[in-house]
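User: Teach me something about this protein's shape.
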Amino acid sequence: MSPEQEQLLMDQESRTRLPDPDEVLNFGYSIYVADDDSSTPQSRLVARHNVRRHRMTQPRNDVERAYLLSAHDIAVAFSRSLSRRKGLWLQEIRDAREEYDFERLRLAEARKEMAFFTISWGLVKMAAVALLGYVTAQVIGFFIPADIASETGSKIPGILGGLVFVCFFRWLVSTFNDQRRGEVDSRYRQRITEANDVYDEGKLSEFRLYQAKLCEAWLQYTAEEYVSKISYVDVMESDLRARRQIQRRLNNSRTLTVALRVFRLQKAILVQITRRRRAVA
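Assistant: First, the predicted structure itself:
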């Protein structure tokens, strides 16, 4: 390397005194946190202290001044990219919440509109059960053996069948309503999960981009490849994998919970039918 080229590089003392790419990234993140209203007061206080400490670094020559200006511009661009990513994430969260509240309100209004029919059904359900049981008893009575009919009567099994049918109908309506509410909740959780994934992946990509730019600036002013002392990428990727694993476990748990509810409901219906049959016998 010629003497003229060496004059455009920082000496060893400058490389030790001035912030390296990792420290510049911390500076950029501190700018982002200091201007973030959602950060805790303690975090903003620490971030502002880091910003002031970094800005107190003064260049001693033109080479240091050029490096500090380049590093400062990259740090500011990094903080703005993080703010933009967070703004898009917050907007998606708000949109998902508004859609969720609208869908839940629409379901609540639908239930209110059906309130009259629900009350009417409560008044006539006993008559409906009796009528359905009577009609069913007349139909099933033709197929009941004579010995069973002489002991229980031909109408008892039909009435039991009518009760089971009505209970099944009520369960079907309740299941349909629960399914609609579950679909709304599922869509909301899915949008939140996707928004979080996009936000985390976006932060990771921004970090990689500006880390590469800072390493290029370091190479330009030192003629040395920079080796990161702290693997932020590994930490962020590990956090992202851990959160996705937790989400998968939660989804599996919800599926298992629904299956258990259906199994318990079927078991309860079978128990009630068995008890009624024993009581009749």
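Now, about its shape. The first helix runs from residue 3 to 6. Residues 151-155 have pLDDT under 50 and may be disordered. If you'd like, I can walk through any region in more detail.
User: That's plenty for now, thanks!
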